[in-house]
Amino acid sequence: MEIKKGIAVSPGISIAKSLVIDAEDYRIPRRSIQPSQRMTESQRIRNAFAGAIDELTKLEATQDQTEGGKIKDIFAVHLRFLRDRSLKKKMTDLVHSQLVTAEYAVSATMREIASHFTKVKDAYISERAADIYDIERRLLKQLLGKKREDVEHLTEKTVVVARELSPTQTAGFNREFVKGLATDAGGRTSHTAIVARSLGIPAVVALEDLTETIRAGDTVIIDGNRGIVIVNPDEQTISQYQKYSREFLELEYKLDAIREKPAITRDGTKITLLGNIEFPDEAELVLQKGGEGIGLYRTEFLYLNRETDPTEQDHYEAYAETVSVFHDRPVIIRTVDLGADKYTQSKRFAPEPNPFLGLRSIRFCLQNLVMFKTQLHAILRASVLGQVKIMFPLITNLQEMMQAKFILRDVMEDLDEESIPYNRDIEIGIMIETPSAALTAFTLARDIDFFSLGTNDLVQYTLAVDRGNEQVSTLYSAADPAVLRLIRTVIQDAYKAQIDISICGEMASEPEYIMLLLGLGVKTISITPPMIPEIKQIIRSVTIEDCNNVARKILTMNSERQISGYLRNAARKILPEAF
Ligand code: PEP
Ligand code: MG
User: Fold this and answer.
1) 3-class SS at 532?
2) Given 215, 250, 285, which residue is the final one in a domain?
3) How far, in Å, is the centroid of ligand 2 from the Cα of 506?
């Protein structure tokens, strides 16, 4: 039995067999062969093609047309590629002319083809590079004698273990069978962690070398509450965890009972509790958990998990579905926040040196106006269906905000010309998630309807700590005095300008921060849906006066350790079961 400690990012307990996913990024060195080995290497290439075709044909047959229509189409494209004789010939020619191994010939040929695709400006064509890399990996696995670990066709409960998972991979997991996640890399607010939380899959990240110590098929306990992973637990540990899991579920059940009750403090202050979602079908979960609307819809997930960009109609349908759950309640649609750790297929293979400081989020939209306007058009169309609001992410200065608003007005004019109805008075907000926006909040507030504090990024940019890097995760904390001072400034400036202020960063999903946030003046909180009952319970157990005292006390403290210790103790007194 081996016990590993990481960071708990998604609550719950799961006990299941592991599936270890490879990094899947092969680097094939150029190795020479003797002239006498040419025939053997060429035959290995032919065998790899035959094996890959066989594997894909079997996979294709298991997809039923209704559910997996799109996947079936992708398989068909891959099969056509693999059956193309000229491709195989190109590789065997390389073996003969350059005396290289089969692996090198496959990799070099496929990467050359992929590089042609990525250079093409047309998004559809450049996206095909992802297919080429996928075919390359399939062939290399045949050559290297490893079967691809297949997460798509699970038949029993499984815990997925990986060095790193992308938000896209995580979002694509079959929730029926994937019962837990454990990764070597990652941090609490990495998007992979956020997705795991939204899907309700217990997860632990930052386990550093777990993939080196675990084998596929080992039994694993994921303790998503305490950030512990136990590999090959003994009988006694398993039964302790089964008991603990039952108790945890009972607590969840008990908390679900307050679903219908309002989020109101003991001294009568109403707090609006909203949900953060990545997919429209999560809106129902927000409602079920007792949320009163959507405070953050991360629409970039419409671009992930798919081969081609969504159309205007795809956008519209996703928004209409979300709004239909909440009719007259707020639904804040955030415009796409692509870049950093969230890439479309076409961008995946052209990484930037510093993606979190690069062409990300609103910057990406302002440079891709067709895409941006398509989304705004769809949001405006959906605005007549309910109480839709628009929010722009990662604003760093006034000019950027005005530019985004200007483009929105432009799209409104287009809709006027097309005689398409929309809400002319739609509320427009921005996320405050950079120190520059926080420090100029007073100016920004004059031209906008609301702010939402995006503390996941605000912490990262204020403290210069990558939110997804496990090596610096102990430095990443919303309890840092610098972060708290910025938060206080933004809240005060919003009050002065009389605009709404909410918080949608993960900080607000953590029980220990609630009293502080209420004490600083926050009255609207948007969080990951599974945490709504717990946070509501805390709100219902405190008075604003207690919260004000906590905030006053915290603002006199100068160390993160002191602050987090104090907050934890205060929250533990309110809801001991949560700790
Ligand atoms: C944030 O940065 O706090 C936020 C809510 O946005 P995201 O986590 O999607 O970057
Ligand atoms: Mg953010």
Assistant:
1) helix
2) 250
3) 10
> How is residue 388 written in tokens?
């839709």
Per-residue pLDDT band for 331 (boundaries 50, 70, 90) equals: very high
Pair 132, 67 in one domain: yes
Tell me the whole-structure pTM to 2 decimals: 0.76
Q: Give the mean model confidence (pLDDT) for residues 557-570.
A: 96
CA of 505 to the centre of ligand 1 (A): 6
Convert 276-304 to b/e letters by CB count within 10 Å (16 or more is b).
Answer: bbbbbebbebbbebbbbbbbbbbbbbbbb
* Judgement on whether residues 119 and 20 belong to the same structural domain of the protein: no
Q: What is the Cα–Cα distance from 43 to 62, expressed in whole angstroms?
A: 29
Q: What is the pLDDT of residues 475-519, one digit of tens each?
A: 999 999 999 999 999 999 999 999 999 999 999 999 999 999 999
Contact at 8 Å (CB) between 533 and 566? no
- The CATH number that applies at residue 295 is 3.20.20.60
State how many domains the chain has: 3
| Ligand number with the minimum distance to the CA of 342 | 1
Q: Rounded to the nearest 10 degrees, how much is the dihedral formed by the CA atoms of 115, 121, 124, 125?
A: -40
Domain boundary among 231, 250, 269: 250
Q: Which of 149, 224, 243, 209 is nearest to 179 (CA)?
A: 224
Q: Please indicate, yes or no, whether residues 324 and 192 belong to a single structural domain of this protein.
A: no
**pLDDT digits 0-9 by tens, 340-392:** 877 665 555 456 788 899 999 999 999 999 999 999 999 999 999 999 999 99
Q: Is the dihedral of CA 412, 416, 421, 423 positive or negative?
A: positive
Residue 109: exposure state from Cβ atoms within 10 A (0-12, 13-18, ≥19): buried
CATH number of the domain at 99, please.
1.10.274.10
Of residues 72 and 291, more confidently modeled:
291
Q: How many contiguous H segments (helices) and E segments (strands) does the chain have?
A: 22, 16
Beta bridge partners of 406: none
Task: Give residue-wise pLDDT tens across range 185-199.
Answer: 888 888 888 889 888
Calculate what percentage of the chain has a pLDDT beyond 90.
62
527 lines ligand 1 (CB under 6 A): no
Q: What is the span of the domain harbouring residue 520? A: 258-346+353-578
Q: Enumerate the active-site residues.
A: 191, 504
Atom 4 in ligand 1: residue holding the nearest Cα: 454
Structure tokens at 180: 């837990």
- In this structure, what CATH number is given to the domain that contains residue 7? 3.50.30.10
Residue-level pLDDT at 239: 94
What's the confidence (pLDDT) of residue 88? 94
Question: Is ligand 1 within 6 A of the CB of residue 337?
Answer: yes
Query: What's the gap in Å between 487 CA and the centre of ligand 2?
Result: 15
Q: Which of 457, 458, 462, 522 to mutate to test the pocket of ligand 1 (most atoms within 8 A of CB)?
A: 457
pLDDT tens string 513-527: 999 999 999 999 999
